[in-house]
Sequence to fold (343 residues):
Amino acid sequence: MSAIWKLKEVVDDLSAPERALFDRIYEFYVEEGRLVLPEGLRDWAYSRFGECEVQKIVRVINKITFESTLFNELRARRPIDVKAKEDIYQTIEETKGDFFCDPLNKTPSDVFGRVEGDHAITASNIAKYDYLHGVIVFKKHTPFSFSKNEVRDYLKVAWNWIKRANEFHPESRYPFFMWNCLWKAGASIVHGHAQVLVSKKPYGRPAFFSKIRKSYEKTFNSEYLEDLLKVHDSLGLGFEVEGVKGFAHLTPIKEKEVCIVSKDFFSLAEPISKVLTVFYDLGVRSFNVAVYMPPISEEDFYLARIVDRGDPYARTVDIGGMELYGGTPVVASDPFKVVEFLK
Fold:
């Protein structure tokens, strides 16, 4: 079984063309972190962490995007926790009857009206991120509504909202879709909902990613996303759902990050549903989904990124100074374990 702390062995087993592509995009190092335990701390440390005086550290660096992730063998060796506190269901029940439960009367509409589907209806965000910012309010109160048909409907409602927003403000051509589940992921309302924006300027991270792809194609005469899929496939980190390919990310932004790549927005529905269902089975109750989208009327890849945001009731947050300013997340989950569940 492959594992992140065995990355050197996995990479060394690649064929020559696979290794060349890996080395084009990635580099990594494996080092030992050492510490000295006083006798009074040894029993406690061993009971909690096991043998921890020598720890294997793996750092993976994407040379193209400068994404970088640190893995600690001590953390990554732990089995993925499949338990979740059930307190969240009491919270969900207690918040029934909120504004999103009656969106027609208790949420504002956009000036160009609402978009309604079988499983969702739009509202205008009352405290907008940007000048065109809609909320996709799920018709079920629970935030855990992510069957294939539900997700497809959310995407359809988002797409129709984007078209209406663009007709209202034709200069606005850069859409962005995101889904924050529960407060740990940045959602201020428990009721299930996603969000959609359109702007006349692309947002920072998608714009950076687009620039990276153009530079990569100019340098290597190859599509970066296709090569990224090939590298992850060669390492055993790729998976496929109904012809749509994805991978457990080798440089995840945080826990269990999964990426999905498609040239069709709506074909993302089934793999997003599959990933969220697997996450739920693994105890994930708070997550982010984001989709990088091409400008309106342009054909290109859609990239969905999905990440676990941790226990909603944990007092600690999952993002600190290392992530915000060091630009290098410290991650406990092993992508090789994540992809086993997805497969």
Residues 148-168 form the longest helix (21 residues). The domain at 82-343 is CATH 3.30.428.10 (HIT family, subunit A). The chain has a mean pLDDT of 94. DSSP finds twelve helices and 13 strands in the chain.
